[in-house]
Amino acid sequence: VQRDADNTLEGENEGTTLQAASVCGNLNMVELLLANGADVNSQGGVFRNALQAAARAGSLGIVKRLIVNGPDVNAEGGKYGSALQAVAFSANLDTVEQLLTAGADVRAPGGKYGSALQAAAYSANLEIVKLLLEAGADVHTQGGHWGTPLQAAAHVGNLDIVKVLLEKGAEVNAQGGAYGNALQAAARAGNHDVVKLLLDKRADINAQGGQFGTVLQSAAFFGNLDTVELLLDRGADVNENGGSVGTALQSAASKGHKDIVRVLIENGAELSAHGEHGTM
Questions:
Q1: pLDDT tens digits, the chain, 280 residues: what are they?
Q2: Phi/psi of residue 249, each to 5°?
Q3: How far apart are CA 154 and CA 32, in angstroms?
Q4: In the chain, N or C: fewer CB atoms in 10 Å?
Q5: Cα atoms found within 13 Å of the Cα of residue 158, Cβ hemisphere only
Q6: Which residues is 143 bridged to in the sheet?
Q7: Following DSSP, what letter does each residue of 161-222 receive, concatenated?
Q8: Rounded Cα–Cα distance for residues 95 and 109 (Å)
Q9: Residues 39-71 as b or e (16 or more Cβ within 10 Å = b)
Q10: Which own/partner pairs from 93-101 qualify as long-range (CB within 8 Å, at least 24 positions apart)?
Q11: Following DSSP, what letter does each residue of 78-91 receive, concatenated?
Q12: Do the Cβ atoms of 275 and 239 come closer than 8 Å?
């Protein structure tokens, strides 16, 4: 590095030169920059600091090296809110352990996924979910794109993670997030086994929330026939109105799902029901 080179210069995305080297996993470059005075806590860029950048890359060696220089392991900001959330999303168990050992706050809020636990649930890494829970992660934490860790796990369809979260006391009917609740998130994605489990755990089958209003409307809109039939068998209100489309029948009809339209009509769906798009 030349004497007059600015190794803290910020770029639009990577932030500083040290962050750029960290997110690329270039340990030799990180060593060189640190040896020439790069500030390990310099802020900026999409990952906010070098530690979060290295964590997102899942680079254990760089994370260890940065920690030697005394970074703030709980620095807030950036796409993932914290280094721990970034590495939970990248699904690198060893690096999660390293950050926890260094004092990372397992309950730190913020970032795209609201918490490290929600990020781990969304990335479908059971071992990291278990580790975070053992370290004191709050299973009820609200925030982020999915609202709760349970909703994130339900959407990606990881039955084992859903079971673990429920065993740890996750509220099956918690509201919030992109799809209103865990049941609607699972139904939207066609995760039939998760839908069954949530119903067995007394999820409210007619709960309102999210873009589509109810779980039946969501399943109907996305063409998940098996889930529609299951919901009807479990007592879903076929004529419940709400959400962006109106009724389950309108949801199915708007997407051309003839088999679902037929099943809904056979189960008492009203052709004259009013909703976002008027009547059938």
A1: 433 333 333 444 668 999 999 999 999 999 999 999 999 999 888 899 999 999 999 999 999 999 999 999 999 988 999 999 999 999 899 999 999 999 999 999 999 999 999 999 999 999 999 999 999 999 999 999 899 999 999 999 999 999 999 999 999 999 989 899 999 999 999 999 999 999 999 999 999 988 888 999 999 999 999 999 999 999 999 999 988 888 999 999 999 999 999 999 999 999 976 555 545 4
A2: -65, -45
A3: 44
A4: N
A5: 22
A6: 147
A7: HHHHHHHTT--TT---STTSSHHHHHHHTT-HHHHHHHHHTT--TT---STTSSHHHHHHHT
A8: 19
A9: bbebbbbbbbbbbbbbbbbbbbebbebbbeeeb
A10: 93/125, 93/127, 93/128, 93/131, 94/60, 95/55, 95/58, 95/59, 95/60, 95/63, 96/128, 96/131, 96/132, 97/131, 98/60, 98/63, 98/64, 98/67, 99/55, 99/63, 99/73, 100/131, 100/135
A11: STTSSHHHHHHHHT
A12: no
Q: Which residue has the tokens 């339900």?
A: 154
- Distance from the Cα of residue 132 to its chain's centroid: 15
Q: How far apart are CA 85 and CA 189, in angstroms?
A: 24
- Return the sign of the alpha-carbon dihedral for residues 166, 172, 176, 179: positive
- Cβ atoms of residues 122 and 90 within 8 Å: no
Check: CB of residue 276 under 8 Å from CB of residue 249: no
